[in-house]
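Hello forum,

I keep getting stuck at the same step: I have a sequence, I want structure tokens, and every attempt I make locally crashes halfway through. Rather than fight my setup again tonight, could one of you with a working pipeline run this one for me? It's a single chain of 1000 residues.
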Amino acid sequence: MRLHRLDITAFGPFGASQSVDFDDLSAAGLFLLHGPTGAGKTSVLDAVCYSLYGSVPGARQGSGQGMTLRSDHAAPGTRTEVRLELTVAGRRLEITRQPPWERLKLRGKGTTVDKAQTWLREYDPTTRAWKDLSRSHQEIGEEITQLLGMSREQFCQVVLLPQGDFARFLRADAEARGKLLGRLFDTRRFAEVEKRLAERRRATEAQVREGDAALLADAHRMQQAAGGAMELPELAPGEPGLAEAVLEAAAVARATARELLTIADRRLSAAESARAATGRELADARELDRLQRRFAEARERAARLAERSDAHRAAQERMERARKAEAVAPALELRDAADSEHRRAAAAEARARALLPQALADAGAAPLAAAARRAAEELGGLESARRAERRLAALVEERAGLDRQERADEEVRQEAETWLADWETVRTALQSRVDSAQEAATRAEQLAVQRDPARRRLTAARQRDRLADDTEAARQRALAAAEDAVEARAHWLDLKEQRLHGIAAELAANLTDGTPCAVCGATRHPAPARKTAGHVDREAEERALTAYQTADELRAQAERHLGAVREALAAARAEAGDTPTAQLAEEAEELEGAYTRARATASGLHAAQEELRRAEGEREQRVAAQQQAAVRSASRVAGRDRLEREQAALEEELTRARGAAESVTARAAQLERRAALLTDAADTARAAEETARRLKDADARLADAAFRAGFDTPADAAAALLGDTAHRELQRRLDAWQSEDAAVRAVLAEADTADAARRPPADLTLTTAEQAAADADRRLREASSARDAADRCRAELDRLSAHAATSVRRLAPLREEHTRVARLASLAAGTSADNERRMRLESYVLAARLEQVAAAATARLLRMSSGRYTLVHSDDRSGRGRSGLGLHVVDAWTGRERDTATLSGGETFFASLALALGLADVVTDEAGGVRLDTLFIDEGFGSLDDQTLDEVLDVLDALRERDRSVGIVSHVPDLRRRIHAQLEVVKGRSGSVLRQRGAG
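Reply #2:
Ran it on my machine without issues. Output:
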């Protein structure tokens, strides 16, 4: 990177525009930047940094996004600007930056803030012209940082070498060195690795603790399942050996549970055997009791059957007659159905014949059918006349529609003519409203300009009247305070004079024999002065002085207040003049009223314009509607003529078709009704004849069936029939009697039942067996419950043990990961026993960088110190701290290695200079090899003797061999004689200026 030119305007102490030609200064390799303290030497370097990064180093940036960078000496209309022209990475660029600027508003009073501006341009050697690249702060910042390869902090340490910082760096402890090197080499990623490892260690530790807590919870549940017989390990979550202890305790609990289950199984088997024996005895007793009761019940049922034997024989006879009548039932049903059908057919025939004309009332079925066919044929001939009648109705409706349209169009034409007749009057009135509102808007704008001055004058006049009264009151208070101060001063002077007159008595009060007098020196005091009445002592004088000072301060305050009131009064009079306040208030009120009325009138401008536009649109619509109505009226004339001709032809056709009827439809309805009546009468006559024949056949079959079934008449057969419900009930009673008789006979014939009936009663034996069985059941339930509890305990312990074993297996990889991560985190944090020097990872990386810096600095330090001193990196621990960032100097004259804090002031300067140059080389290589052709070194040369100064300048001059230019910032007068290329900063009351002198 090489600087070419810097232009500064209203920046820092520079009120006007200043320019620096670095090409001219760099021609000699070394150039001097000097000037008195506070002139602005550092501001030149700040301008370079601000142009590149948009901010300046340290606290000089201030607040307000750079608004404090503006020069206090700049003219109000001059904006702060910094422009830097440089070459970096083979590209010639020009950067222009303007910080935020608070300026006066162009209209009205007050100030406004313009935003910061940035421009980046590049010189094109082909076209020999500058081309714009960007105006975005972010894009320009990223572009410059990428080209330089350095952040602002690195640039300020590498290009603007601050010797004071490096002197502190030499004497600093490891922590302070680590902070600076960390900013320069950006080792945050290694610190982030340490942080991520620590976080990962805490995360895995929390997961392991969580898993152990779950494992302990399983252990507590196993202890509860085991009934408290299980002993838990006295270990906390996360402690080693917890998993093994829990699994061992679980194994013991499972073995105990299995032993208890075996004992419960044996007790259950014994209870089951006893229960089976008592069960057999109880079953025998119950069977005997059942058989005895069964035999007794069978004897009782046989007696009841003998009592109902007569009723049973009568029911059997009734059932036999019903079975014979069932053979006649189909004939009876057929005859009843034929009779019902014949009655319905006869009634239908009577109703149909009642509707026929008298001439056909007694006709047979065949004549009626022939008459129906003739009516249907006549009806078919009227279909064409029906279509003509429907078309005629449509024509009438169509003509009525044309008449309605004609009336509607006539109304449209008349309404449009009426509205258009008043159009010019309406348009003139609306246009007049628009013009009046526009004139009012113009008048309101003019009055608005006059309102603010009138209000300010009225406010100033009211303030003038108020301040006039305040001025008189302040003058009276100032006069009274002055009088009080004069009186207090006179009182103080009187007391002071009285004290001086009696000072001898005051001094004598402190005299003692043998002590010299403070006035004459005598040790004897034969006649010391005595205090008289009204003597003034020191306290009284001081109280009077205090009262005078207080009164004088009140006087000064009153005079200052009077001056402030008078200034305010003068300002108010300058604004308001001598016009009375009432007159100004009246003028302001009239102006406000006129403005309000004008605004009210002007507010209707938009509404008037909209109403005018709507009226014009309505006029266009009405004209168009009038024209369209005329066109439609003309087109309807031809249609009406065609409809009249078609209507006349259809009416002639319909007159022939309808005959005496009112219409074709009425004639067709007459024929349809006649054909339907004739057809219905013919059908009902045929049906009546058929049903009469079927009824006669059914009577003959019924008489034959009754005779064959053994009945004298069909009526006797019908009486013997049973309904479904009566038949089912009778059959149920017969079946029930037979079933009961068979069941009783079977029970009385059973051998075991008869044998049981001959044995003694089983009541006492049954009671004893039941009590024994109940006792056996209770013991069996107790044994079964105990066995189930033991089995549940064993199953629960097996389940919990399996779950615990699964948890242990699942946690095993996590425990291994936690162990590995914890070891890495401790190693990176420098707390591990394996890290013998307790060096953190970031410190280890920085130690490597510091070793490179020490090696690069030593190459120049040897020359500056005439081969005496060498900088070396030390990774020894200091006290109880951590090692890695130690820096020592090796003295070749003594062969001893000592701390850099033991160097003298001059030695510290050139050692820190060598360190700064070495650091610049290392950071440059770290930044990707960006070449730094321009460097600045700030102060420290005054601590060197002539020989050392020559050697230091020789080292700096040797930088020219690498085509570098070095700017030295110093107050040392001898450097002005040694370095010919100079940039002098001259300060003055109107701001600082720059004077440049080249190498020639």
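The first strand starts at residue 2 and ends at 11. If your local run keeps crashing, start a new thread with the error log.
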